[in-house]
Amino acid sequence: MSIKKPRGTSDILPAEIPAWRFVEEVCRRQAAIYGFSEIRFPTFECTELFARGVGGTTDIVQKEMYTFTDKDERSMTLRPEGTACVCRSVVENGLYAGALPLKLFYLSNFFRYEKPQAGRTREFFQFGCECFGPSTPQADAEAILLGDSVIRGLGIRGCVLHLNSIGCADCRPAYRAALKEYFASHYDELCDTCRSRLETNPLRILDCKSPVCSAIADGAPRTTDHLCENCRAHYEELKSILAQSGVEYVEDPRCVRGLDYYTGTVFEFVHGGIGAQAALGGGGRYNGLIAELGGPELPAIGFALGLSRLIMAMEAEKAPLPASGEGSLYIAPLGGDAVSAATLLCQQLRTRGVRCETDITGRSAKAQLKYADKSGHTYVAVIGTDELAAGKCELKNLRTGEKTGTALDADSLAAAVK
Ligand code: AMP
Question: What backbone torsions phi and psi does residue 415 show, to the nearest 5 degrees?
């Protein structure tokens, strides 16, 4: 029996690569424009990092981690998300001692043992950004604007920003108590998971997908009615910066995000056209995490966008990929001396940076032309004894069918093709 890929993973095949490359390029470009530098971190980390950095009550830590014991009997986990990894690296490398704000981004793959469905896989890719230092609403707005600029840069228009504030260490306990009291009065109707969340993390009941819990959550107390003066002022200022910047948002009291580390601002970019897993990405403020991981008190805000969902949204909206500006050439030799001439020309064109191929199979001119077309070349040149004798050939543009004459040397061909 042939071996298949693990459930919930994907091969990204050559035909899909242009879309992935485009998404990655837009992420990198926008990150650079906003002053974020790239960071890379290990694919696996000590399990304790996620237990402490993501939170013991979260689905990720409780159910979804790929954890294994290595040969030294240490518990290791394939990274299920990036924020804890970046924070670990910031603390371990003392990056907080350099210039602040410290703005970092990553493009990495992550692993969660979830039930696969459209938009949800066990290995997935994220573009994530983290900004350390400022606790201002301006920093929150900058992170949101960066995420928004990536989504717009990809041509996605049908995405809505959901915004909320879940309060800080001062105001959250009272809100949590109010929430607990409200949900306790509906205890018998809640699903089993939410009954246990009532003790561990009642905020999570707000984003339960079960229709019954969801209907109960509609009537729950709102975080924004329980914010302390600081959190309220911060939230109001953020909303006014976003409005000024032309970013539309909806206030969503049920947007709480799944992770334990968030404080204050939380947000999600939600798309209506990609099915049940509708969040293109999300993030929020996590002012306590660096200290939790052994560093100084260092406020932070971050977000992550899922690359496969961005591509799904582009496909749903038929957002076009930019056409490649580079021309390329296939040289089809008609046997004899033309074969070695074509091999040499091909080599010379490649050293000039032109994408070029010639025949390496010994097949007929007809079969070669079919290959040239299928493999996406822009031009084809057929060369035989006549072309070699004349020192000239005809270049056919495979997109338009147009034919032009050119001298049969590498410089002339390179100029004609580019
Ligand atoms: P999270 O880290 O859960 O806040 O996820 C941020 C974004 O990453 C989501 O909005 C998705 O776009 C993407 N994402 C998270 N988990 C998965 C998954 N299992 N499969 C595909 N994309 C995911």
Answer: -65, -40
